[in-house]
Amino acid sequence: MKPRTGVDRSITKTWRPATQAIRGGTWRSDFGETSEALFLTSGFAYESADEVAARFRGEAQGFTYSRQTNPTVSMFEERMALLEGSETARATGTGMAAMAAALLCQVQAGDHVVAARALFGSCRWLVDTLLPRYGVETTVVDGRDTQAWAKARKPNTKAFFLETPANPTLDIVDLKAVCDLAHEVGARVVVDNVFATPVLQKPMEMGADIVCYSATKHIDGQGRVLGGVILCDKQFDTDLLGPFFRHTGQIMSAFNAWVLLKGLETLDMRVRRMCENAVQVADFLSPRVPTLLYPGRKDFPQYDLAMKQMAAGGTILSFHMEDEKQAFALLNALELIDISNNIGDSRSLATHPSSTTHKAVAVEIQRELGITPGMIRLSVGLEDPQDLIEDLDRALKIIGL
């Protein structure tokens, strides 16, 4: 790949986020295309044997094989690093590939990981099942309790793993306090920032070492492709993450990276509008359902901390019906809002976590987390909020509420 035309790389770091989301990391070929080019190629040709040898030795710039690096993927990675404020990024095939790689690349048998108990179901499986299978000890704590993190630390603790807000209970972790505790014992902090997005929260500014996303969610935001991304410093990438990627084939496809680049162009506008809609929907639902959870409302238990760390309350809210039967009845009565287990889409989506996203989590652990049979998670989209409210109102009346 030839150098970017017309853009000084040092200047891109001074751009504001809205500009970075559209132009950051853009490379142009000799054709001078305005949109990012899509490089659908598995390999690359070289001018000489000396050139390829130099690239494999790391002495010359350029691409070698799309399992390791690809121009389109690299553009997405650079743009994400600019938005997050990290030194580098690695794009993965899915969000769970990002979570798994961020942990597995840095631990080995005999190490210890502390994790928040409120995690996405598959993330809990990593902590509860996969890591122990390979001799990595894990401790799960109430992420809201800073002292619980402190007490869980051990001499062999290598990583803290958490998401805030958490899925689907929206638990908030005090990022700065928890990062300080981890660093006191030399542990790295891995944050799943999917619910907040880089628009609302930047964990690295509060001390996090590694930030992960399921790019399938808000970054695409239109239900088209899968993807994930890990953001970190160059040393972590050189020593641990990069070799893990090279030899395990975690990289995102070029096509998906191209679609996600298009998603980033409207990420800021979409997330902020979805947050505005979520506030209106939450205000409507609050007096109509037994319990409502939304970080942007003052009746949310951790409202002050949420607003200290986040620019807005987010696009997701959860509420509890009386039981599973009532929850299913409400979901089935919806006409506009889709039943789906995804989040962050331009379309509003509702799901029943106990039977879907957290189905693999033992029932007793679900209850410990606050996931009840009557819980519904609602991802608020870009529709007119009044249409969403009318759909919910109609469904609530059908089930007698």
Radius of gyration: 22 Å
Class computed from helices, strands and strand pairing: alpha/beta
Q: Count the strands?
A: 12
User: SSE string, helix = H, strand = E?
Assistant: HHHHEHEHEHEHEHEEHHHEHEHEEHEH
Distance between the termini: 61 Å
Q: Summarize the amount of helix as a percent range.
A: 25-40%
CATH-assigned fold name of the largest domain:
Aspartate Aminotransferase, domain 2
Shape field? globular
Oligomer: single chain
Domain tally: 2
CATH homologous superfamily identity of the largest domain: Type I PLP-dependent aspartate aminotransferase-like (Major domain)
**Quick one: CATH class of the largest domain?**
Alpha Beta
Mean of residue pLDDT? 95
Provide the spatial order of strands within the biggest beta sheet: 1-7-6-5-4-2-3
Second CATH tier, the architecture of the largest domain: 3-Layer(aba) Sandwich
> What count of helical segments does DSSP give?
16
What's the main sheet like?
Answer: 7 strands, mixed
Q: Bin the strand percentage.
A: 5-15%
